[in-house]
Design a protein that fits this description.
The chain has 252 residues and is mostly helical. The protein has twelve helices and no strands. 75% of the residues lie in helices and 0% in strands. This is Adenosylcobinamide-GDP ribazoletransferase.
């Protein structure tokens, strides 16, 4: 029994490492990784933990700058910059690509081709500006590391909704290799962290807002390209984070 438990914990630790390696730019050193592709596919349950960690580090930076006397708007801008460095702007890149593809493509094939283009267009630039403005305004108002952590967890849980509800829009690409095995545990973990960190009413509002954003992206992706891609999942995380933080700001 103890051997089974040790093996189970080792597998979960490796999956957490896979999630951190995908979702952040943190130096993992010799952190063990799954030995088979199936292990990386099962790592979806740990995405909320990766988001919570990134949010917590950025929220800590905001708290430190506020303690040093920096104005809230400026402290939040620097903390958002830290968050983008921590995550490599992975999800923001997805948001820009999805906005350009869905906004500029005439048909499914053209939309997918635009999303693979590394150049950014007007739709993508506007989406990035709006998402950063929304998050910055909400986080400056909230000024709470717990809000950063909860929003990070909920946003990465929300991207599991299109992952679980839709098939991949392409046969290749990063998202095509992601599995659905960790979707339900990841959703439960993201919501559980929100209720652990926030008052019940605030947690419920933020969870519902993030879930609605995830379902909305899934519906839109199905209509636009018939499935999900890595860009769509990343965009979903950003939009869910905007929605969760906006919901938390309503009670301020």
């Amino acid at each position: 029994m103890s051997g089974w438990l040790i093996g189970w914990l080792a597998a979960r630790r490796a999956e957490l490492g896979a999630a951190l390696g995908l979702m952040t730019r943190l130096p993992l050193g010799r952190w063990p990784m799954p030995e088979a592709p199936e292990g990386f596919a099962r790592a979806a349950w740990a995405y909320p933990l990766a988001g919570a960690l990134a949010g917590g580090l950025a929220g800590g930076a905001q708290a430190l700058l506020l303690w040093a006397g920096m104005p809230p708007a400026l402290a939040t801008a620097w903390a958002l910059a830290a968050l983008l460095l921590l995550t490599g702007a992975l999800h923001e890149d997805g948001l820009a690509d999805m906005a350009d593809g869905f906004g500029g493509g005439r048909d499914r094939e053209r939309k997918l081709a635009i999303m693979r283009d590394s150049r950014i267009g007007s739709y993508g630039a506007l989406a990035l500006l709006l998402s950063l403005g929304l998050r910055g305004a909400a986080l400056a108002l909230l000024a709470s590391p717990l809000a950063w952590v909860a929003a990070g967890a909920l946003s990465r849980a929300a991207l599991l909704l299109p992952l679980g509800l839709l098939r991949p829009a392409r046969a290749d690409g990063l998202a095509a290799g992601l599995g659905r095995a960790g979707v339900l545990p990841g959703l439960a973990l993201g919501a559980g962290l929100a209720f652990l960190l926030l008052p019940a009413g605030a947690a419920l509002a933020a969870t519902l807002a993030a879930a609605l954003a995830g379902l909305g992206v899934a519906w839109l992706a199905r209509r636009q390209v018939g499935g999900h891609t890595g860009d769509i999942l990343g965009a979903c995380a950003v939009l869910a984070e905007c929605a969760a933080l906006s919901a938390l700001s309503l009670g301020r």
